[in-house]
Amino acid sequence: MKVRKVKKIKRTSPIKRTGSFLKQVFLNLKKETIDGASLPDNREEHQKDIRLFVAAISSMALFIVLVIFANAGRLTFQTISRPGFNFFTQQIDDEKIFAQALNIAKNPLPFKWLIAIFVISLFGGFGLSKRLKFATKDVAYGQKGDERFTTEKELEKQYPIIPDHDERGDE
């Protein structure tokens, strides 16, 4: 039986690559094609591209969530620290504060806070991508049978035939 080999596509230098970060990640993900049953040679590089993509997406999501909650906390603190506000007799309108926190253009955070939140979200995103396990890990790579089908002789040797008995063998 003839097994076709993996086609390797020549990669261009990073200087020749143009476009946004996401375009580069998607181009790297599409470059591997498997024609036969063998696994790709550059699976570590593929896994790094996926981790980088997951880190970028999770960092952006974490940044948005942290900015909204930091803005809500700042607005809550401003409401509590107003002169004449009694914490025991007056209630804080959480829905109104959260609606104001979502409007970042009207109630912007200080620039230093945004930088700190951005750094925290980068560390959180890259930490999350390191802890996740991806489907590109080395499953059955280099083991016997990863490039061919199992023969009937190997199946018979591995799984012996159990004879059918109509009667009990003890008697």
From TrEMBL:
Descriptive protein name: Conjugal transfer protein TraG
Transmembrane segments: 52-72, 111-128
Keywords of this entry: Membrane, Transmembrane, Transmembrane helix
UniProt keyword Membrane present: yes
